[in-house]
Specification:
Blueprint: H1 2-19, H2 22-28, H3 38-68, H4 80-107, H5 112-130, H6 134-139
Helix pairs in contact: 1-3, 1-4, 1-5, 3-4
Length: 142
């Protein structure tokens, strides 16, 4: 679901400028064009907040489950480092998806084309995970 969520974030983020034709005004401003790349940084920032929040919720649910079911308390200490490492790896891997979807949503005015690329990316991820090379994709997240 990560490609779909990133598609929605970048599509809505760039849809603000497409709505009132603000790109002409932005390109006419006397600022470096590298400042436009900050839109991708905002998408990555939103994703980092999402991953940090999911790690925090995951840890709290794990701690709460040891109190609710005492049989789970014998499993050992919670793997906080493992959870944080995997969340960081997923966040770093999502930068490529953010870059692709930011470019697509900046390039095309409408919302259906960026949404279509997000749906195609999601299906590609599902089929790649079940393919013979999918063990390499799944292996990095264990």
């Amino acid at each position: 679901m990560l490609p779909l969520l990133i598609t929605l974030e970048t599509g809505l983020l760039n849809g603000i400028e497409h709505g009132d034709r603000q790109w002409k005004h932005i390109f006419a401003l006397p600022v470096p064009l590298l400042r436009l790349l900050r839109k991708g940084d905002r998408g990555a920032g939103a994703d980092s907040y999402k991953y940090l929040h999911s790690c925090r919720v995951n840890q709290r649910v794990g701690i709460a489950s040891t109190y609710l079911r005492p049989a789970l308390a014998n499993a050992g200490p919670p793997p906080f480092g493992f959870i944080a490492k995997n969340a960081m790896l997923v966040w770093l891997a999502s930068w490529l998806i953010i870059a692709i979807h930011t470019w697509v949503s900046m390039r095309w005015t409408g919302f259906p084309i960026p949404l279509g690329t997000g749906i195609a990316g999601t299906f590609f991820a599902l089929f790649a995970a079940s393919a013979s090379v999918g063990k390499y994709i799944r292996g990095c997240c264990r």
